[in-house]
Design a protein that fits this description.
By secondary structure, the protein is α/β, with parallel strands linked by helices. Helices cover about 35% and strands about 25% of the residues. The chain is globular, with a radius of gyration of 23 Å.
């Protein structure tokens, strides 16, 4: 962290207090408050339409809000948005690389937006390309890159100004497992350097791997916040037995009185949430007409418990 920025703020790297955003009579963000400590990865989770993107745009000074206060690295937003954005790196949900430029030229042009000279950016480019594992693609056109390469370049581009806070909006959407793991590795390296990360994602395993703390939004409000494993323990039974296949509903009808736990049904799958899975598994072993999976409760179970299993429209 640069000395000038460390002197500019004390405490939270990002502070959101009582944030409200309305479109007409519709409340998009409702009294939202959270803080991110310097050097941590904080996950902001929620279904489509929960207010995540609106919140990100507000804290970057890109959309006005109706009430509340936002401080980014000690700067008040929107009054000091320009100063705040100079110390923030942003990885948008969709890649917006310039297809007319090479990999190196994309970094050069982007660096100029932050007032860096060409010489300054050129000095940083080898390190950025090494970070993105794109050294061999320095002179390649964007059309020659795979989806994973484009995503890594977008991440490297967000680092061109050596930001203190990095905002990532669904950074691994559309990537294959190998590309996702490589992006995760790079994000963990940034955390090891002391960077602060705000992450939105629909991949619960991604949030559980990367985030020290997270907040779950629903209908514009914070419905839970904390350390992932502690939230799981607070809101869920320790184990889940998933029963699935054509006979799952019939199995449930026959054995429901004997099941000690909370039951959910989604499609052809029966979810048995319980503190003791052994009796349920014993029932299943005596019935070879259905398949089952026993596992610990996870972050996806928490997400669905708090926000529901119904589909949401974008908005």
């Amino acid at each position: 962290m640069s000395s000038s920025i460390s002197q500019a703020y004390q405490g939270a790297a990002l502070s959101v207090s009582g944030l409200c955003k309305r479109f007409g009579d519709r409340s998009i963000v409702n009294e939202l408050s959270f803080e991110i400590r310097p050097g941590e990865c904080y996950g902001l989770l929620g279904p489509n339409g929960a207010g995540k993107t609106t919140t990100l745009r507000a804290l970057l000074g890109l959309t006005p809000f109706n009430g509340g206060r936002i401080q980014v690295l000690g700067f008040d937003v929107p009054a000091q948005s320009r100063e705040a954005r100079a110390r923030v790196g942003v990885v948008p949900q969709m890649d917006n690389l310039d297809p007319d430029f090479t990999v190196e030229e994309n970094l050069l042009v982007f660096g100029r937006y932050f007032g860096l000279s060409s010489a300054q950016v050129r000095e940083r480019i080898p390190g950025l390309l090494d970070f993105a594992a794109l050294g061999a693609k320095r002179n390649a056109r964007i059309s020659e890159l795979s989806g994973g390469m484009k995503r890594r370049l977008t991440l490297a581009r967000a680092m061109v100004n050596d930001p203190d806070l990095i905002v990532l909006d669904e950074p691994t959407t559309g990537l294959d497992p190998q590309a996702r793991h490589l992006v995760w590795e790079r994000l963990r390296a940034l955390l090891a350097q002391g960077k602060t990360i705000l992450l939105t994602t629909h991949f619960m395993d991604e949030a559980e791997r990367l985030c020290g703390r997270l907040g779950v939004l629903d209908h514009g409000a914070m419905v839970a916040e904390g350390v992932p494993r502690e939230l799981i323990a607070q809101h869920l039974e320790p184990y889940v037995v998933e029963v699935f296949g054509d006979g799952a509903q019939e199995w449930l009808a026959a054995h429901r009185p004997a099941i000690d736990g909370r039951i959910e049904v989604s499609g052809e799958t029966v979810f048995c949430h319980t503190g003791d899975p052994d009796p349920i598994v014993a029932l299943l072993r005596a019935n070879d007409s259905v398949r089952y999976l026993q596992r610990p409760a996870n972050l996806e179970d928490l997400f669905l418990r708090l926000t529901g299993r119904g589909m949401r429209e974008e908005g």
